[in-house]
Amino acid sequence: MNDRSLRLIGLGVRAGSVVVGTAAVRDGIKAGQVELVVLARDHGSRTEEKVARLARGKGVKIVEGPDSYELGRRLGRQVLQAVGLLDPNLASEVLDSDRAESC
């Protein structure tokens, strides 16, 4: 995940269009509100079981972010394993930004 994507997610947190933490992301997926899930590169097996599996089952895209310490630091938290983007435009921008970097 590139720096631009992380900055966009940070803006989304401040705007209220991003949920942070495993429980909040899981609730958002269940409610059909999450458009994109960002999982820390080093996420644990419980996060895989509780968030990633649910997201896949609901057809929500998942991207890999930085490690949990960096993801948390960039979003004003200590350690963060999962982030859910609620805004479809923000999710699209993050996906496009990541694709552009990998090309």
Descriptive keywords:
103 residues; 60s Ribosomal Protein L30, Chain: A; four-stranded mixed sheet
What does this molecule look like?
By secondary structure, this protein is of the alpha+beta class. It has a single domain (3-102), classed as 60s Ribosomal Protein L30, Chain: A (2-Layer Sandwich). It has helices at 3-15, 22-30, 45-58, 68-74, 88-102; strands spanning 18-20, 36-39, 61-64, 82-85. The radius of gyration is 12 Å and the shape is globular.
Present the secondary structure layout:
Layout: H1 3-15, E1 18-20, H2 22-30, E2 36-39, H3 45-58, E3 61-64, H4 68-74, E4 82-85, H5 88-102
Parallel strand pairs: 2-3
Antiparallel strand pairs: 1-4, 2-4
Helix pairs in contact: 1-5, 2-3
Q: In one word, what is the shape?
A: globular
CATH architecture: 2-Layer Sandwich
Physical arrangement of strands within the biggest beta sheet: 1-4-2-3
Question: Which structural category fits the helices and strands?
Answer: alpha+beta
Regions with pLDDT < 50 over 5+ consecutive residues? none
Mean pLDDT: 94
Q: What characterizes the major β-sheet?
A: 4 strands, mixed
Number of domains: 1
What is the H-and-E element order? HEHEHEHEH
**How many β-strands, per DSSP?**
4
Radius of gyration equals: 12 Å
| Separation of the first and last Cα atoms | 13 Å
What is the number of helices?
A: 5
Q: In CATH terms, what is the fold-level topology?
A: 60s Ribosomal Protein L30, Chain: A
